Sequence to fold (955 residues):
Amino acid sequence: MSAVSNRTRSAPMPGWLKNWLMIAPLLLLLVGFLVYPVGKLLSLSFVDAEGFSLAAYKQLFASDLYLRVLWITLKISLITTLLSVALAYPVAYLISTASPRMKGRLIFLVLLSFWTSFLVRAFAWVVILGRNGVVNQFLLSIGVIDRPANLIYSLGAVLVGMVHAMLPLAVMTMLAVMENIDRNLPRAASTLGARPGAAFWTIYFPLSMPGVAAAAIMVFVTAIGFFIVPALLGSRFETMITQLIIDQVQQTLNWGLAGAISVLLLVVVLIVFILYDRVFGFATLTGESPAGTTNRDTAARRAGAKILTMVGDASDGLIGLFPGSGKSTDAGKTPWPLTVFVWTILVLISVPAFLMVPISFSQAGLNWPPSGFTTEWYAQMWNTPVWTQALWRSLTVALGTGILSMLIGVPAAFLLARANIRGKAALLAFVLSPIVAPRIIIAVGLFYVFAELNLVGTSLGLIIGHTVVCVPYVVMTMVAVLRNYDTRLDLAAQSLGASPAKSLYYVTFPILAAGMFSAFLFAFATSFDELTIALFSSGGLSATLPKQFWDEVTLQVSPVIAAVSTCLLVFISVLIFTADRMRQRSLAR
Amino acid sequence: MSSSSLTVQKLSKRYGDFVALAETDLVVAEGEFLTLLGPSGSGKTTLLSLVAGLARPDGGAVLIGSDDVTYSAPHLRDIGVVFQNYALFPHMTILENIAFPLKMRKIEAGEARRRAQEALEMIRLPHIAQRYPKELSGGQQQRVALARCMVYRPSIILMDEPLGALDKKLREHMQLEIKRIHRELGATIIYVTHDQEEAMTMSDRICLMNSGRIEQLGTPGDLYFRPETLFVADFLGESNLLPAKVEAVEGGEISVAIGAKGIKGRALADGRLAPGAAVHIMIRPQNLSIAPAGEVDGAKLQATVTDVMVTGSLTKVYMKAAEEELPDLVAAFPTRASGETFRMGDRVALAWHGTDAVAIPESARN
Fold:
């Protein structure tokens, strides 16, 4: 009776120890390579050669330069957020109401842009808005202008690039909430006598608000730490605060001032988050409905309801101006202006990156329109060792990051999704903090710590750094996957004689395989596209692909970049396509 | 109460190649309680959606009273719909939910509150006005959904499996509740369910649907005792269906020869049958008298007991007929206090009255 002896031999591990073992690697990683480096960087702002000093802050506030840059940063981020959310809302709405097949295609389009490197997309705008770019050539050819206009290196160009970069994030964040809104509710409203405008504004819109809020904060926090777009598309009047930190570290090696600017940036982000938590609660960020936080009857709520009722009446009045509309059963269908608008947005967010394809084969270089056919740029890319080395380095680092993130993140996700432990919300907030903390602060802090540990320029250093920022995505994805998993299947397997380990191997993992694979891909792709950490920690000689891309783009704009962009685009498309297939196969089961 | 009749003329709907509803005619009288009954995919929810205006028909017409509303938007139809999952607005209090249809009709806020509070009293939940839907139990949510639908006195109320998510006891309680409200308001109600017991106990008439068509329309008694097709006989309650041939027709009764051996019997039939026609004889389990073999006079069938089930008030005996080609049989009788019953393997004899057997023509669809 081996089963019996087995049972007596292995004394059950105490629950707290098991829980601790599941989360410990993640906590150690975050303490060692997030809390310590960031803390170190911040503390550097309070010391100079002699010890404690506020010299860095004196320098920070000595002129209005830094506050002005902070103001510009906030202004650009805020406008970007407003535009992104406003444009993404109809897109997410249309996707959430589309038929399953159409939905799959639309999401694919959004995901493709979402995963296409920020660098590629920003570079595409350089080509589009440049002196000999697409827009200028078009305007010249139709005779609107007789000389190329200065479109690039302006606030407008920065905003276009920023909104373009953030739209997919906003769509995906809102979609997560809209997907969970019961489609019957607006229909119920219409059977109760609500006209289409009233049904939308008083029922659907308030229910989608958590999604709008989540999208707004995600976009705002990402935008505030952004430097690719303002560096490539902006003039010195659009310098953002992250660029100042990079300059302090890379050019003047003024760690104290870099730390002080980081403190400034961090304080702003913290204020934004505290406000968000007060109003909406963090739970909405992970897609959980804020249980227990019942919205009591407040004056603000009533005022909101009143305004929405008025907006609803107004839009119904507008609809009523068009004879016949809104009175037939077709009223439930998507109105065609909305469909046209959404497709325009979708085309606009996909097209820039695809422009790289014809340009990469053009003999005219980066000039528009492309002419002739050549593979010269690809040959140049292939024959330049820095590019091939960068490619290998990126693949190695991304693979290492994917594996390490899974090893650390999956057990933690199991714990967070299933165990009932105290302080779970705080733990979740801590685990997700690498996403919301400005990436630049993590990157600079890591650079400092890696320098102490001699990890600068090593693959190991990059893998550790990337794992810090990728692991939260793995945890989030896996928690969502596990929430949909019926744990009774494990109990069934165990009641049928499987040990916990065997039921994990034969039942749990096979069912979760697709979800785990997409979590891995998420980590892989994030690492593959990561620039900020690589910018510092990859050292001068062992650049990753994004770092190499960045160095090239900031020094000279060459058609080889278009060839590299095309390769990245194809690579990402294949990745998403594979992930999508995996997901569909798991759904079909 | 402004209740209205409903007329459906040649209404049809397809989704691609799938015929969700074949051309259908139906008239529901003012104040009637009509149930759409049928298995899933039979078209009952499609018919309901077309009447509610939540889907657009491919052809035909829907009239409420004498108004043609075939292509009108839902909010212009003056109907009420109780959804399967209740569809209460999660961001509004119960009172706001119930007042919503009044607000949409531009009824002054104070008046709307007063009427919503009245509706809450009608469903006997006056104390929950300020709560939110997720704070209520399933049964309470169900009653709020009813109140929200009744508060503006729509001329027709449509209910889509409103009790599907409730447990058996609560469901029975709610059935009585809905009947009470129906009586008090005199509303015209169209009720969708796949639960035949629910349909039998609640309806004035049942419209039994199958593969996008009306299979039979009539009172619960009509459908139960005079099924027109095998499908109806099979769907409503248990029944024994014996293949037979008509030998003679005498008014409302016929004599038949059952099975290959031609066992003689009598059955009720409508006038359409002619001698020689193939029919099925339907006998309900409780009309089949069962006795140990050789103890009954006029026994018609011999069988062997394969299973015995005591379901509480009734004892059911499952049997295999001695004649190979006949289907398995079931008989039911009130459970005896002594607990005395049959055992597996017992040989039994079966008999029935000619007035308890109903002939169903073979030619009918199915």
In short: The domain at 238-361 of chain B is CATH 2.40.50.100 (OB fold (Dihydrolipoamide Acetyltransferase, E2P)). Helices of chain B lie at 44-52, 94-104, 109-122, 138-150, 168-185, 196-202, 220-225, 230-235. Chain B has two domains: 6-230, 238-361. Chain B has eight helices and 20 strands.
